[in-house]
What does this fold into?
Amino acid sequence: MLEIADTIELERPQDKLIRRLCSTLSGYLDQTQIDQCVLAYEVGATAHNGQFRKSGEAYICHPVSVAIMLAEMRMDANGIMAAILHDVIEDTSISKKELADQFGQEVAELVDGVTKLTKIDTKSHAETQAENVRKMFLAMAKDLRVIIVKLADRLHNMQTLGVMPPPKKRRIARETLDIYAPIANRLGMNNIRQKLEALSFEAMYPMRYAVINNAVKKARGNRRKIVDIIENTIKNRLEQANLNSDVAGREKNLYSIYKKMLNKKISLADVFDVYAFRIFCDDVDTCYRVLGVMHNLYKPIPGRFKDYIALPKANGYQSLHSILMGPYGVPIEVQIRTHDMHRMSESGIAAHWLYKSDDDKTKKFQDRANEWLRDLLEIQNLAGDSLEFIDNLKVDLFPQEVFVFTPKGAIIKLPRGATIIDFAYSVHTDLGNACVSARIDKQLVPLQTKLENGVTVEVITATWARPNPLWLNYIITAKARSGIRNYLKHFKQQEAINLGRRLLEKELQMMHLHLEDIDKAKIQVLLQIMAKLSLDELLEDIGLGNKMPFLVAKHIAQDDINGAIKLDGSEPGKKQPLIIKGTEGMVINLAKCCRPIPGDSIIGYFNPGKGIAVHHHECRNSSVVRKKQTNWLDVEWSPDAIGDFPVEIRIEILNQRGSLATIASTISELNSNIENVTVVDQDDRICVDLITLTVKDRVHLAKIMRRLKDLSIVLKITRVKA
It folds into this structure.
């Protein structure tokens, strides 16, 4: 072990820190484990030798300070060693393998989990940071100590932020408020969260911090007398009821004061007029009895009571909250909890290390933390890139919860404002993908219905159902968002592959070839030429309009085309149109400028990355497309095309009361639905409207237009084709 001698050298800051660390560790680790931690320090100090922080102190002071924070949380020996060595892979020549050989695989994995990805080739700082956070969460899922070390690392960095230039200070503080403080909150580590928030607030807005801090200090003296009076009144009443409890006045966090002022647009005086008290009890039964006494002492304000003991928050927080009307007409906020609950609220997931005797109590909380991490893993697997993952993560880190029930009575926690779709995806991704409707307390409701506390939700599914892109407008949970995006991405991909196959087959048929008959070796050569990994990837590119099917077919046929002509005797250049039904989905788009319907003469053109856009032959835009001979293709409606297709008509009617109602009822009688009505011109006598309605085909449209022409109020009716 490190020898402690009275030499000048031991006066170095790092030597003082290692002595302090050893002193803290001696309270709960055996000597062998302490010796291992000292060895880690010696390896780290040698590796970081010659490296200094911006403050001028030796770099090793930072990891040892982080280790001291963790030692105060009673972190195990491997966690302490990982903290001391957490920067050696990133900043020195020591490799993960060398760490594993010397300190074991567990320590090496922890260090690697905390280490940033320094060699990522990304476009921006934001993407680099997003990828770092994504990697950290993957490591967290394997071992929760990764995030404990990372939070302690971030807290020490925030405490020593003073020497940084202001722009960098603000950037680091913003990242801390966006990611690390909410993670600490999500893991129930309230003590670390409050410190991170206070330091970030001071770094981001030094003037605002100073003003609020000074105002709070001035107000403290005036408030003390009222706080003492209320505190003594509460203590006396609890003694009269023979309830053994501790009472403490609570001062608001500066950042929470600032947030309240900002969000509610109120002054500091309005925030500071709420007096907050915590009451600590020995058991849960006493908590509820104390609540009864408090409600007898001061009148509760309706709607301001929350029972987080029966329904704990997602981060394991438990307490009874009530707002009461106190003496002098001032509101009093009371939080009632057991001593164990208070320790859990301050330490959260770290309580597992701090209070070994409470293993049974922390197990449920750890299970909740692990469940949250599993959900995050699923989200990150579905996320397209790191920035999307970070967006989803931020949504997940700021929940104000509602509690709803499944038909079997299970409780589901969701953020406030969550809809039926959020609920379905929180139960299971497959349930979300197949939902069509739902019942809330046995009443049928639409999918976009927002959920309230205490309702029972039953999701109705169908085998044919699939997620709708519009759902993204009214969902709020990260799991639902990533599930829908992932499904739509793969659904569009499959549609593009199917369309690409049809387009390529059509071109090959004109050359008297079939795709399945083409030699596999030739396909491989083609894929190399086109720089594609698989045939599906090539077909997807064709379906999305990024590759011309004629050119791909020409590549395939260049050796076989002459033989094909001899076999048939006909010319291979005669074009066959692509047959469409209009229900192909995302890769065949009916143009909104002319709104083609079954029975129309149509033309299609490739819209790179999006598929095929279909226009009416008489559309003005199609004449532009025709000039680009390489991009357009012949398409025809399938005889069995079915569905409701939007079409636009221009109608001139007499401007009199009830005219529009007559038009609407006539259209409805003919099994058509009006999607939109726009008044384009109007005077005292005539009104000109553009009406978008749905029809089955040209015959259906003709029938509607004939019936409308017969109305005495209709002066002129035409179909809009451009």
